[in-house]
Structure formats: C-alpha cells, structure tokens
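Annotated sample (chain length 236).
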Amino acid sequence: MAILNKKKDTADSSTQRYLPFSSIKENIILMKDNSARIVLKCSAINFLLKSVEEQDSIIISFQRFLNSLDFPIQIIIRSKKLDIDSYLSNLNNVALKQENKILQEQTYEYIAYLKKLIEVAQIMKKEFFIIIPFDEDSNSSVKDSTILWIFKNFWKSINQAQDITKIKENLKIFSKAKKELAKRTNSIKTSLENIWIKAETLQKQELVSFLTDYYNPRVDSLAPIYWGIDDYNIKS
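Output written by the structure step:
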C-alpha cells in the first residue's frame, strides 16, 4: 500500500537562494543558468619601473592579447585592507624569545612603528583576477549588460529551483565545459606570459574563500572554512 507524502515543498528563504551559482566542481563554478566559470589569479608588474621601451612593449602585447580573444572575459581588480595582526603577533613572540636585549628592543620598536603606521594610514593590497566564462549558447550569459537583463537575470536566479534533477543536468555539461575552459585558460595564460604576468587557476578551496570574501569580506577572516567536502552545492 502506497503512502502519500503530504509534506509541501517550501521555498528556501536563505541567502543562498539569491546567489547566481549552484555548485563548485573541482576548479569550476557552475552557474544556475547552466554556464560555467573559471577564475584566474594574476600577478602584478610595476609598470612605472620599466623603461620606455619595455612599457611600449607591454602595452602593445596587452593590446594584442585583447584583440586575440574570441570569447568574453571579466577583469576584476580588488583592493583589500591588509590584515597584519597575525604578523604583529608573530613578531611579538619572536621578541619574547629573543635573548639579545638590543635586538629585542629593536623588535619592539618596529612593532610600535607598524602599529602607529596602521593608525595613520590603511595598508591596502590589490589582487587581480580574470573570470573566464563558458556557455553552450554562444556566451549568452554574458552578452547583455542592460538594466533590463540585470533585473531579469536576478529574478531568474531567485525563482530557479536547484533540485537534484537540475544539479544532475548541470553536471552533464561539466565535461564539455571543463574541456573548453581548459583551452581558454591555456590561451590566456600563454598570452599573459608574453607581458611577464603569471596567472594561476584558483582551485576549489581557493574559490570558496574567494566567493566568501567577495559576498561578505569579513566572514573569511572571522569564521573558519571547513574542507573535506567533494563538491560545494548551493541549494536554492
């Protein structure tokens, strides 16, 4: 005798419902619209310290890099306040264990100098990222940037349920997305090497930290992130 389940599905009211991605598989972010993303973290070069010839070479190489792209990319430049509390704590421990009184006193003076410097001016660091997308439908998820499309995509992400069936459908395109994104990633890395920029693909743990810090900059530094999960699936 079959027993009917009268329990009704209730919409998830958590913040996860409003996120545009559904899961992280290996080093790839799977979006709710069935597209995928890879994130590259890029090194920086001190352009002003280069000679005029080197500067011209960098500009021309970067121009060639942009012109060679046959797919869209997103460049993110993020400024973050540098947290040196752990560094100051380590210095203090070193000073406590220092047997040489002169070196110990100099270490304490250095710690006091850094604390005063932080009070006067915020110490910032810049991070550079390139987002590489993949869509089965000719980059449809990044084509339109109008206000109408932004609101349409927002409400779509809210109303698009991510049940088990939907997640399985996303995983079906994972193999194709992984292959195509690998080609695009290698192409970008090779082009950036010509202008002395090194790009590294963010892995799963780094992606979790990146997204956590992006949506809530303080959570990543205040709350520990627990690893050991094969895939991060976000319900909606």
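Annotation: Helices lie at 52-68, 85-97, 101-120, 147-159, 164-172, 174-193, 204-215, 219-222.
Annotation: The two ends are 33 Å apart (CA to CA).
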